[in-house]
């Protein structure tokens, strides 16, 4: 066995260590030369009429390179690199080039909301060690943006000198393994401001997460102001200061789009809607009744889905929001419909009896109404897994995207029904798990989805587990999620980052690292890079948590067991 | 059974709900009258020559009352209270009176570091609903400070009016059930700045925690600059910017003292000292050797305790720090001595053989040296439980204070040996548990002390479990602790607060609430008050986390199961 062991050790030694880039590009070659950044470094664009948001992205990248001021994570924080500063070459320029359509470049924000199967985030990057002009090339401005986020992560600062120690760097046609790489935030259990969301989008940009899944409403509050239905937020927001105006929504959408991020808004229906009862009590079953009996958590109340008027109202609400959004996808939720509530609700039972329908047949009609309205607006519906696996829905369009949340084990069943899926499994990706529970009188207070999902656990997720090879194309990607029963602006950064970067690499880099090793089981190689992106986030004002003592962060692999 | 149930419901209804005070005073009576605070409200002192730190405390209380701006946690955030504003009486003045020694009042900072059995934190408070002058009376300035922290928590703000809805409030001789109520921070695994510590002290003041246990050094870094031994921090701090100067230490001690907080510094020995090897390699066994074999976590290395020169050096280091501190207590640590390391260490084995001692006999000598030095400085030693339960130490002085950390089950055994204890059990009070582990290559990454310790779990701790009635006086109190392998300034507030307030009430209020109910099992009554102090912390710039959706926080008991 000795020769095999020796071979493994030697091969392991060739794994690039301490690279600063997260997610690691799918194709990646680098050296170990020092290359300094010129004091007059600039980023040029080699085509005419670049869109304003690309120019803005270049300005941000220039600023980040100056302000990141990240010391390399090694003992001495780069002092050993400085010996080579005198003889190192200097990079004066990075050139951005478009491979296709350079005559009519689209804004990043436009490319960012293209349909998932038409979105092109690929790019190539070359930074040689001789100081010659670096190049980022791509088919789209969105690809150029991805290249910029990679380029930013090459640079360290020591004693005022900005440099990389990885030159030359050659990345050929890096592109994501999966088209959907998301992060979900619930702004209903507790409220988050636009600035909280923007800071989150900044972090998402850094790790190439391309979808902000905005779970904007829930039973606890309705923080979105809709011109056509002002009563919903007036009665349902925690306060006027804790709601999003239409301008706030557009502000978030614009900010996201400029950073290559699509905004998937979710208005969860027909469950998780108690707060609608504050303005439309007739539309809500079990409103504020005993939640232990009629809801998964307080307060109880869900839309009277069997009522055609309620279905039409819901469709109008969804349409009023969806039509203001550039995204091609919109989520109607569909999780945790409480059948006990409807069974006990007189009006619902009367309507079901009058029309001779079962509850799920009525849900089918409700869904046909709401999804039909969205389809007419050009939107593809997104739903939670119960719509397919529990409610026997028959009217779902084939192109519906299904989010698998209850367990990763459910993914295969959804795919077998022919639907496209997004992995959002509670057992890997729920960031809120393991930190207690929000009920008031439980002396232990453990969470239903203990334990805490470590970055390591999330990182080992296999998107294709139990998926047959002919169904691989149905797996769109995945997302990590923050439900906010016990979170608010106070711990947003610390509970999300850097953990949510785990799935960013799972779904960008895929199963195989650029050196040919499997990603799963490669925690030890990943950790130094994750440290690097975490420290960079902190430099950018995102309060991402430590993963190890600094002693370990400065000594890659030394704190492995 | 019906009459019994009815009785219980009626009695339950008399439990004061939504009181804002944490910890709840041991004697407490209040009403439900609105009392407004005058625009010209002031706090007067009825004795001459009040110490400057009492005057400063009054200034801070005046400011907090203005700046807390806390809306009452009910639907409408106080709008229902405002109906009574017009007819409510107005409080113009609070008077601070000293019951004893009013002729020579001591500074708060002096009273705060009195020996534990001589410390007097008791106070009485009266705020009547007729607008007559309120009174806080106490035997000491420290007691007055405690009264001020209670007084501050009476006040809400609605639409510019500062008011309480609990008048009249009468608290007679509130005093802590236990003299030691602490919070421990590890500043060695990751570094925290003086401002991080001060912010933590602010939160501690609010909930009457009276001891800052500063675990200042550990194997990963030595962030304390000691004039006599500058090499320790020069080689052992993460960087010059990540170490505490003597002035920093005094700054923290002063800031704490003014807030009624004693600073218990710990220099952990003989284990947890690898970093001393960076400047004194000859003093450290197993320095940077295989940590899996020779240490509980990386890096390996602990003082060569069998060497008399090392014992003398250690005593000098401890003395150099201890002599600068006003506290009567100082911790020498003593946890997790790794016997495998010493067994494999040639110099240690040689010294043991030459002197004919076992390892633990040598540890006894080492302890006699270090503790003897501390005793000569007037300091009482504090140690971790292994010193008593595992190492068969015979030279410990009887007055040594022992911290029980491995398990709450170990408390009784320590008490049975006659030592005073501080409860610091990992199974109730470790704030870091349940959030992963710091090793680099574990694909699950669960923590050794899963699960997360919820505030509810901590709140149900019984300090006297398995303690016989004649040993009750040996139980000094307890503390919650943050070990910082995976924490830093980024998540300090959110991982500590409001959870660390749990033990503040456990050890101030004791087992019985002022209405006669048992504390344990009273989660439901405690939660609204904990919400209140959490929201107040946030108003004061401490990023304490949410415990429930705001919908629940505004509706006490409605989100109980």
UniProtKB/TrEMBL annotation, chains A, B:
UniProt-listed SUPFAM superfamilies: (Trans)glycosidases (SSF51445), beta-N-acetylhexosaminidase-like domain (SSF55545)
Residue stretches making up the Glycoside hydrolase family 20 catalytic domain: 178-510
GO biological process terms on file: carbohydrate metabolic process; glycosaminoglycan metabolic process
Residue intervals passing through the bilayer: none
Gene3D superfamilies recorded: Chitobiase/beta-hexosaminidase domain 2-like, Glycosidases
Signal peptide boundaries: 1-20
The protein's enzyme class: hydrolase
Annotated ranges, domain Beta-hexosaminidase eukaryotic type N-terminal: 21-154
Active site annotation, chain numbering: 336 (proton donor)
Protein name: Beta-hexosaminidase
Annotated organism of origin: Lentinula aciculospora
């Amino acid at each position: 066995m000795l020769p095999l062991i020796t071979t493994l050790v030697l091969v392991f030694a060739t794994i690039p260590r301490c690279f600063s880039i997260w997610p690691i590009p799918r194709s990646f070659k680098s050296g170990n030369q020092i290359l300094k950044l010129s004091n007059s470094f600039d980023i040029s664009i080699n085509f005419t009429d670049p869109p304003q948001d690309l120019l803005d992205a270049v300005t941000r990248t220039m600023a980040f390179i100056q302000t990141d001021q990240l010391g390399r994570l090694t003992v001495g924080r780069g002092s050993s690199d400085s010996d080579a500063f005198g003889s190192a070459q200097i990079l004066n320029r990075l050139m951005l080039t478009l491979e296709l359509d350079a005559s009519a470049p689209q804004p990043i924000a436009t490319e960012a909301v293209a349909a998932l199967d038409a979105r092109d985030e690929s790019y190539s990057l070359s930074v040689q060690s001789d100081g010659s002009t670096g190049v980022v090339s791509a088919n789209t401005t969105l690809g150029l943006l991805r290249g910029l986020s990679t380029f930013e992560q090459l640079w360290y600062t020591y004693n005022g000198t900005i440099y990389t120690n990885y030159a030359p760097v050659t990345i050929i046609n890096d592109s994501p393994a999966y088209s959907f790489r998301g992060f979900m935030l619930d702004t209903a259990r507790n409220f988050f401001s636009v600035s909280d969301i923007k800071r989150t989008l900044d972090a998402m940009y850094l790790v190439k997460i391309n979808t902000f899944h905005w779970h904007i409403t829930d039973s606890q509050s309705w923080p979105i102001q809709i011109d056509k239905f002002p009563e919903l937020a007036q009665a349902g927001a925690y306060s006027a200061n804790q709601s999003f105006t239409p301008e706030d929504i557009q502000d978030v959408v614009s900010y996201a789009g400029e950073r290559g991020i699509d905004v998937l808004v979710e208005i969860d229906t027909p469950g998780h809607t108690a707060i609608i009862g504050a303005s439309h009590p007739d539309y809500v079953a079990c409103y504020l009744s005993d939640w232990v009996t009629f809801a998964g958590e307080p307060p109880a109340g869900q839309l009277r889905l069997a009522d055609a008027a309620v279905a039409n109202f819901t469709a109008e609400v969804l349409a009023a929001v969806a039509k203001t959004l550039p995204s091609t996808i919109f989520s109607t939720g569909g999780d945790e419909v409480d059948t006990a509530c409807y069974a006990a609700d007189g009006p619902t039972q009367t309507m079901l009896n009058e029309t001779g329908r079962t509850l799920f047949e009525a849900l089918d009609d409700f869904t046909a109404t709401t999804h039909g309205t969205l389809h007419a607006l050009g939107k593809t519906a997104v739903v939670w897994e119960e719509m397919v696996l529990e409610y026997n829905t028959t009217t779902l369009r084939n192109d519906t995207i299904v989010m698998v949340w209850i367990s990763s084990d459910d993914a295969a069943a959804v795919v077998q029904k022919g639907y496209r899926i997004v992995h959002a499994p509670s057992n890997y990706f729920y960031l809120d798990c393991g930190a207690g529970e929000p009920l008031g009188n439980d002396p232990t207070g453990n969470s239903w989805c203990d334990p805490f999902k470590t970055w390591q656990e999330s990182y080992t997720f296999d998107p294709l587990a139990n998926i047959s090879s002919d169904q691989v194309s149905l797996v769109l990607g995945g997302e990590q999620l923050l439900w906010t029963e016990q979170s608010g602006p106070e711990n947003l950064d610390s509970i999300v980052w850097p953990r949510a970067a785990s799935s960013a690499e799972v779904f960008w880099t895929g199963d195989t690292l650029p050196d040919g090793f499997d990603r799963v089981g490669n925690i030890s190689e990943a950790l130094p890079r994750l440290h690097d992106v975490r420290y960079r986030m902190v430099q950018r004002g995102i309060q991402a948590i430590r993963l190890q003592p600094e002693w370990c962060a400065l000594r890659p692999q030394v704190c492995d067991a």
